[in-house]
User: What shape does this take?
Amino acid sequence: MQRVDTYKHKGLRQKLVEHLIEKGISQKRVLEAISAIPRHFFIESAFESHAYQDKPFPIDVGQTISQPYTVARQTELLDVQKGEKILEIGTGSGYQTAILAYLGAHVVSIEYHQTLYVKAKILLSQLGFQVTLLHGDGSVGVPEYAPYDKILVTAAMPFIAKELLLQLKVGGYLVAPVGEKHKQRMTRVHKISENKFEQEDFGVFVFVPLLGKNGWENSIP
Ligand code: SAM
Assistant: This one.
């Protein structure tokens, strides 16, 4: 079905942006991206009235589209620059992928669940985004396209997998929720040199669990 982006949707996005500013999001480019991308396209049309609330929302196979604040915060922490190659682990609805692409990144995004991968691929191509979408276990990264300027994990990691740090360029950042299955700390790792890393903590967040080899459940995607 053809989705439309009306003045009403744009107005709701503007209100959401004002709310994100109040919550401390300050990077102008990130706010511009939130204001430009129609989040309601990434949610079933019957539920689109939920699209501009600052809440996660269920998508298929028990997964969620992340809360707008979380998307904005993770994007801000990544400090996306035009032309950077970014690996996103957990495509989900494709909303965060669209935000990164809007900011000028070359996005490689991998999704564990085939249903979500197929849906996001169709939607992002309909919207005109040129991104590389893959289906598989991103908990081991995607070595074929490495190294990456930045790596973004959008599901809860029990630990920071070595494979991901190896696939990160020196000078790059990895941003990921790390910790327990139902509560994590937003963590940013800065790769200072091939074997030196600095880690920063940005507080508590709650994500769905990462699956796969370095996740909570090691089944085949
Ligand atoms: N960024 C997404 C968005 O904007 O809709 C939200 C992602 S949702 C919170 C987390 C996603 O990570 C889910 O779609 C889940 O299937 C996916 N996932 C979990 N483990 C994964 C893995 N090992 N590799 C790739 N994707 C994974």
Observations:
- Strands lie at 57-58, 64-65, 85-89, 106-111, 132-135, 148-153, 168-179, 184-193, 196-205.
- Residues 63-66, 89-90, 92-93, 95-96, 110-113, 116, 137-139, 154-155, 207-208, 210-212, 215 surround S-adenosylmethionine (CB under 6 Å).
